[in-house]
Amino acid sequence: MKILLASKIDTGALEILSQRHDVVSGVGETEAALKNLIRDREALIFRSGVNITAGIMACAPDLQLLIRAGSGLDNVDLDYLRNHDLKLVRIPQPGARAVAELAFGMMLALSRQILVADQLLRKGTWAKHQLRGHLLVNKQLGIVGLGNIGTLLGQMGLAWGMQVLGCVEHPSPERAAQFEAKGLHLTDLNTVLSTADYLCVCVPLKTTTSGLIGHDELAMVKPGSFVLNMARGGIIDEAALSEALRQGRLAGAALDVHQTEGENQISPLADLPNVVLTPHIGAMTIDSQREIGRRIIDIMDDFDPAEQTPGGSAPGTGHPL
User: Fold this and answer.
1) What angle do CA 286, 314, 27 make, to 5 degrees?
2) Is the dihedral of CA 105, 264, 233, 81 positive or negative?
């Protein structure tokens, strides 16, 4: 098939893909350039960081398949996809574990002030007695969004001796029972906010979650808690978060995603020593990217336009639009 690669993928996977298919790279290109490159393409592979607009897709009359090398769909015009019966396949599982592990690492970094200790020691300051931290055991881990990432993070918390509660957009007795069987207690958002010692946001960005955690919600968070955002920058109001941190109502925060991302962007929280910041690296492990690459190859090799039905999932993924 004729493929447009709009984002970087594992180099080994790209080599194999290029041997089996006609691959054109549009990595780092402007929307205007992508519109030109996609004109004769049948498949599009992309990640976060590039907006797949209706205008881009409309320039590809032969486009049949889109592969999201990850999970989030906030950078895709989903209405255009549905209206034109285009196949979209996500690959959420490999990145989910990587994001969950990063979140857990951030909780440890916050609770033990690891970054502060490192910076002080590099300056010659031996602050052993000043850097008292917290244990995670017996603490409440509150997760907003018990999807792939949230569930994995919750299971890690349980293994560490934490008590885990979370919320989902569409709760039901059946879902509650499923989570309880895993040791995760399903409750409502307000309870999660007011109970958690560590509050981790893991929901996708969409109309119903944009601005989900603002001034009012952060005011409900238990004083002295830590807040983590592993989802998307538009879900937590960073100005409200900054205010809560500077007023001392929160003990710290960690953000892998930001309201404004990209080169030369400096977070408004960057001057706070009790904040951990990373540049959207949640899924960026060698292992996860290799696995995503392998799945991209399988999806492309197995894809048969004649066997597809609108809205279905590609072979082996189980993750339709």
Assistant:
1) 45
2) negative
What is the count of structural domains for the chain? 2
Same domain, 77 and 159: no
Assigned token pair, 248: 């001392």
Domain housing 34: 2-93+286-307
66 occurs within a structural domain: yes
Q: Using N-to-C axis directions, what is the helix angle for 11-20 and 286-302, rounded to 10°?
A: 10
Q: Are 44 and 24 in contact (CB under 8 A)?
A: no
Q: Is the pTM of this model over 0.70?
A: yes
Residues annotated as catalytic are 232, 261, 280
**Is 28 in contact with 71 (CB distance < 8 Å)?**
no
Average pLDDT over residues 66-82: 95
Range of weakest confidence among 35-49, 160-174, 274-288, 303-317: 303-317
The CA distance from 256 to 277, in Å, is 6
Are 87 and 108 in a shared domain?
A: no
Tokens 């937590």 appear where? Answer: 236
Same domain, 69 and 109: no
DSSP string, 97-163: HHHHHHHHHHHHHHHTTHHHHHHHHHTT---TTT------TT-EEEEE--SHHHHHHHHHHHHTT-E
**145-158 pLDDT, tens per residue?**
999 999 999 999 99
Q: Are residues 206 and 267 in the same domain?
A: yes
Confidence of residue 309 (pLDDT cuts 50, 70, 90): low
Here the CATH number for the domain that contains residue 294 is: 3.40.50.720
Do both 87 and 165 map to the same domain?
no
Is 81 within a domain? yes
Residues 137 and 270 in one domain: yes
Indicate the pLDDT class of residue 315, thresholds 50, 70 and 90: very low
